From TrEMBL:
Residues 241-357 form the Response regulatory domain. GO terms for molecular function: histidine phosphotransfer kinase activity; phosphorelay sensor kinase activity. It is an enzyme of class 2 (transferase). It catalyses: ATP + protein L-histidine = ADP + protein N-phospho-L-histidine. PANTHER family: OSMOSENSING HISTIDINE PROTEIN KINASE SLN1, TWO-COMPONENT HISTIDINE PROTEIN KINASE. InterPro entries: CheY-like_superfamily, HATPase_C_sf, HATPase_dom, Sig_transdc_His_kin-like_C, Sig_transdc_resp-reg_receiver. Keywords: Kinase, Transferase. Residues 98-222 form the Histidine kinase/HSP90-like ATPase domain. Its EC number is 2.7.13.3. This is histidine kinase.
Length: 363
C-alpha cells in the first residue's frame, strides 16, 4: 500500500460500512478497529511522503502565530475535552522562512505526543510562542544552532514525563512506548529531520511524573515584511450561505468546518467525493458554494467539479490542495476548464478562507 489515496479509499469504504452496519450490528466493533488502523496507515504514509519529498521544499514566509492557532484548533477537535489546551502567543513572534505543511506536521506531532502523555487525567497542554536572540552561548541550548534571532515555539504538558533512560532514544526512528496502541515511533524523528532542514533545533526537558516541554527553534526570516497582524475577519466577509465541504481528511474537515461555521456559513461536510456528489444530485438547489480538496479517492476535486457543474452549471467551486500533492500541476487554464473559480493552497488560514469565499460568491 503505497499512497495516501489507497489508504483514503480503505478509510472511506470502511466508514461507509460502519455507517451501514450501525452501532447495533455484529461487525460494528471490528469495523471501527479496521477504520482506526486504516487512519493510522494513512497518516504513516503521509508522514513518510512529507519526509522523503524534495529537500528543497517550498519555503515561504510563515506567520508562526497563525499556524499555531490553526494547529490548536485542530488539536482541540481531536483530543478529549478533559485536556485543557492553552495558548500564549506573543504578538511580535515574527516570521520564519519555512515549508508551512512541514512545520504544521511538527507542531501536530508534538501536540499529539503531549495529549498522549496526559491521557486519562486532567491534562494541560500549553503552547507558547516567542522570539529569542541567541548569542555566542547558543551551543549550550543545542549544538546545531548558530547565533541569531529565533522564533521559539514550545509545547508543555503535565503528563507522565519521559524516563531518563528513554531520553536518548526518543528521536530515534521507530522508538515508541506506544507501539501496542498504534504508535509508529516516527513522529519525533521526522519532526527532528524537518526542523534540522530548516536550520533549527528541537530541545526537550522532562520530569517523570510532572511533565515535559519540547521547544522548537526556527531562524527568524530577515527582510520579509510581517503579514498584517490580526487575522480577524471583517464583518462584510462573513456570510450565511450554505457550503458543501468535501475532503477525505477528517482533521481538515473538522478545522475548516469550524472556521466556516464561525464565519456564519452553514456547512454540509462529506469525507467522500461520491457522497458529496450524491448530496448535490439529491438537492441541486441546496448549496450556494462547493469547496473541495483535490487529492481524494474515487473522484478527485477536479473530477468532482466536472460532475457538479454538469448538474448545476452555475455552482461556484473552490478547489484546494496541499503541498504534498505537488505532483499535480494546477494551472489557471486547467482550473478554468473545470469551472473552478478559485484555488487555495493548504494550509490556509481563516482570513484567506474568508476572503476567497466572499470573492467567489460575489463574482
Ligand atoms: N510529551 C511527551 N511525554 C512523554 N513521552 C513522550 C512525549 N513525547 C514523546 N514521548 C516519548 O517518545 C516516544 C517517541 O515519540 P514519537 O512521536 O516519535 O512516536 P510515538 O508518539 O510513539 O508514535 P507516533 O508519533 O507514530 O504516534 C513516545 O512513544 C513516548 O515514549
Ligand atoms: Mg508521536
Amino acid at each position: 500500500m503505497t499512497s495516501t489515496t489507497s489508504w483514503g479509499g480503505i478509510t472511506t469504504c470502511t466508514e461507509l460500512a460502519v455507517e451501514e452496519v450501525g452501532e447495533e450490528g455484529p461487525a460494528y466493533e471490528d469495523l471501527t478497529h479496521v477504520l482506526k488502523a486504516a487512519q493510522r496507515g494513512k497518516s504513516l504514509v503521509r508522514q513518510i511522503l512529507a519526509f522523503s519529498r524534495d529537500k528543497d521544499q517550498e519555503k515561504q514566509p510563515v506567520q508562526m502565530k497563525q499556524l499555531l492557532k490553526e494547529c490548536s484548533q485542530l488539536l482541540k477537535s481531536s483530543i478529549p475535552a478533559t485536556i485543557d489546551v492553552r495558548l500564549d502567543l506573543q504578538a511580535e513572534s515574527g516570521l520564519v522562512l519555512a515549508d508551512p505543511t512541514q512545520i504544521h506536521q511538527v507542531i501536530m506531532n508534538l501536540c499529539t505526543n503531549a495529549s498522549h502523555a496526559v491521557e486519562n487525567q486532567k491534562g494541560l497542554i500549553e503552547i507558547t510562542l516567542d522570539s529569542v536572540d541567541l548569542d555566542r552561548n547558543v551551543a549550550l541550548i543545542h549544538p546545531d544552532l548558530s547565533p541569531g534571532r529565533y522564533s521559539r515555539l514550545s509545547v508543555r504538558d503535565n503528563g507522565k514525563g519521559i524516563p531518563p533512560d528513554d531520553m536518548d532514544r526518543i528521536f530515534d526512528p521507530f522508538f515508541s512506548t506506544r507501539k501496542e496502541r498504534g504508535g509508529t515511533g516516527l513522529g519525533l524523528s521526522m519532526s527532528h529531520g524537518i526542523v534540522k532542514r530548516h536550520q533549527g533545533a528541537i530541545t526537550v526537558a522532562s520530569h517523570p511524573g510532572r511533565g515535559t516541554i519540547f521547544s522548537v527553534y526556527l531562524p527568524c526570516a530577515h527582510g520579509t515584511e510581517p503579514m498584517k497582524a490580526g487575522a480577524e475577519v471583517p464583518l462584510e466577509r462573513k456570510g450565511k450561505e450554505r457550503i458543501l465541504l468535501v475532503d477525505d481528511d477528517e482533521q481538515m474537515i473538522y478545522g475548516t468546518e469550524k472556521m466556516l461555521c464561525r464565519m456564519g456559513y452553514e456547512v454540509v461536510a462529506h469525507t467522500g467525493s461520491l457522497a458529496a456528489l450524491k448530496a448535490v444530485r439529491t438537492d441541486p438547489g441546496g448549496f450556494d458554494l462547493v469547496m473541495t480538496d483535490h487529492m481524494m479517492p474515487y473522484l478527485n476535486g477536479m473530477e468532482l467539479a466536472n460532475e457538479i457543474r454538469a448538474l448545476c452549471p452555475e455552482m461556484p467551486i473552490i478547489l484546494y490542495s496541499g503541498y504534498q500533492d505537488g505532483t499535480v500541476d494546477i494551472t489557471p487554464g486547467l482550473l478554468e476548464r473545470h469551472g473552478i473559480l478559485a484555488f487555495m493552497r493548504k494550509p490556509f488560514n481563516r482570513a484567506e478562507l474568508a476572503k476567497t469565499i466572499r470573492n467567489v460568491l460575489v463574482a
